């Protein structure tokens, strides 16, 4: 069995990737089923059972080859989203909110929502996910269904920059970074009761489990970004394609990790459909982008996306009540 190491054991992403290449197992903050207590696995099963089935209301037909939801914040602000760069084993919160902030931008752009795109104080939903997951006290780790329950039931609130006792985000290479102390201070969800009224004003209406790559395609093509949690990891990437090169990763390592997925592409050169898997480790984690996509992520083949749905946790987020099939104007992209 591979040696398991905590995310906080590394002083840099380079060290983490070197340990990956050496065959180490990395605990990034997602607690896989075999490491949960029996009570936590019961909570997970109950949370999944309570979720609505992902069924689009109305007709759906894909009329484009590429649906890049990550473009929404860039169109709105002139820049890519200010993604969360996790500092501790907080991937469930950081990765979940990286999907959530994509949803906020997509709804403003495509639905005409009269809202301002703001940075969300993501440690709140992270701490509440630990509470809903039966994890008490200050510490690291949670799981995807518990985060989905938190964002739907307890919601979120914006970091409005007006104080209010919140620690300041630091902006590093366009990404949001918090100190390890700040992340851990907010990890005890039982102590966040004073913020519940504020958070519950801004809830995600629906989170639904993705059971296959086809669900994932339909979700993203209708403007619903995904958060995924699994043990998927990789030792390196390969650039594939010539006119439209993409950086591709395959499952070759073990990272217990939650991230996000914000694009589906029926690639014009390569066989099959590819998804953009975004990470929470900063813009330089996996090499420079090969095209117009944001830094810090890779593309994965639809067969791997299907495996993540079967073996991990993949959830689509919707701000609307349910998942209506939409006639989206992707000309806005």
Description:
There is one protein chain. The protein has one domain (about 5-55, about 65-330): Cysteine proteinases (Cathepsin B, Chain A). Helices cover about 30% and strands about 20% of the residues. The chain has ten helices and 14 strands. The strands form three sheets. Strands 1, 2, 3, 7, 8, 11, 12, 13 and 14 form a nine-stranded mixed β-sheet that branches. A three-stranded mixed β-sheet has the order 4-6-5. A hairpin with a 2-residue loop joins strand 5 (about 170) and strand 6. Helix 4 crosses helix 5 (about 125-130). It is globular and about 50 Å long. The relative contact order is 0.19.
Would you give the CATH topology? Cathepsin B, Chain A
Estimate nothing, just give the exact number of structural domains: 1
User: Share of helix among residues?
Assistant: 25-40%
Instruction: Tell how many strands the DSSP assignment holds.
Output: 14
Which helices and strands occur, and which strands form pairs?
Blueprint: E1 4-6, H1 13-21, E2 25-27, H2 38-50, E3 66-68, H3 71-77, E4 84-85, H4 91-111, H5 123-132, H6 144-153, E5 170-172, E6 175-177, H7 180-185, H8 196-199, E7 206-209, H9 213-221, E8 226-233, E9 237-240, E10 246-249, E11 253-266, E12 273-278, E13 297-301, H10 302-311, E14 313-318
Parallel strand pairs: 1-2, 2-11, 4-6
Antiparallel strand pairs: 3-11, 5-6, 7-14, 8-11, 8-14, 9-10, 11-12, 12-13
Helix pairs in contact: 3-4, 4-5, 5-6
